[in-house]
Design brief:
disordered C terminus, NA-bd_OB-fold, alpha+beta, DNA damage, two-stranded antiparallel sheet, about 240 residues, 2 domains, 7 strands, five-stranded mixed beta barrel, DNA repair, OB fold (Dihydrolipoamide Acetyltransferase, E2P)
């Protein structure tokens, strides 16, 4: 059977039999891979801890009929324990890996892999408030998938902005002429925060207040779930409390 090597981040795991585990990975070169890690649930397993969610590993696998098999795993980035120690970071990370799992269902994207690894690294280091890191990840991941939101020009007719009506079904803010009756308006600070999260302007994002972050998070969540066409189960558990100091 063909053997290949790649690096990957663990999205989720499932028990298989008494000692094995099915590991779903987003890899750098092969996209999403589902593989069996044999014996990893035994106490003496050499690489069981390297295949926990949010971990990044250098892997050797061989192709199977339905599932590949992991032969070796060497840790490249140990984000799992650092993220799990903080509730806000942990809940944000679970949304990220669920989103990555769905966005890469039929697409091999190096950019999605690099974005996810970078976001998990930021969570583990507490570079920014966990809710900001999550919302930035969601907006960027959707942009890479072809659903880039507009937070300035009209998302429908491209009329020059700024505009304040927010319609997730149309792709972002829209002008008065394109706005459906009753569509909500966003205040300028919320639009500025959403734009900064999309472009990576962390000076603006880190300076935002709690109320603005809460409104922006609601937009990011609604936009994500609309374009994924299905809910994110993990989103209900996200901690939106401030975790920075």
């Amino acid at each position: 059977m063909p053997v290949y090597r790649d690096e990957g981040v663990v999205l989720r795991t499932h028990k298989l039999g008494e000692a094995d585990r099915i590991v779903t990975l987003l890899t750098r070169q092969h996209g999403k891979v589902r593989a069996v890690a044999k014996g990893v649930r035994r106490t003496g397993s050499k690489f069981g801890a390297r295949l926990e969610p949010f971990m990044v590993a250098d892997l050797q696998l061989y192709e199977g009929r339905s599932l590949d098999v992991i032969n070796q795993a060497e840790t490249l980035a140990s984000y799992g324990a650092l993220i799990a120690a903080d509730y806000g970071a942990y809940t944000a990370a679970t949304v990220m890996v669920e989103t990555a799992d769905k966005l890469t269902e039929s697409e091999n994207s190096l950019q999605q892999y690099l974005l996810l690894v970078g976001a998990l690294r930021a969570l583990s280091r507490h570079d920014h408030d966990s809710s900001l890191t999550l919302d930035s990840y969601l907006l960027r991941a959707l942009s890479l998938a072809g659903w880039a939101p507009s937070f300035f020009d009209c998302a429908r007719c491209q009329a020059p902005g700024p505009h304040s009506h927010m319609v997730v079904q149309l792709g972002g803010v829209v002008c008065d002429q394109c706005a459906p009756p009753g569509s909500p308006r966003l205040d300028p600070p919320t639009i500025a925060l959403l734009s900064s999260l999309l472009t990576g302007d962390w000076d603006v994002a880190d300076a935002s207040d709690d109320d603005t972050r809460s409104r922006a998070s609601g937009v990011a969540a609604a936009y994500t779930q609309w374009h994924l066409e299905r809910g994110l189960k993990s989103l209900a558990h996200v901690s939106r409390e401030r975790t920075d100091s």
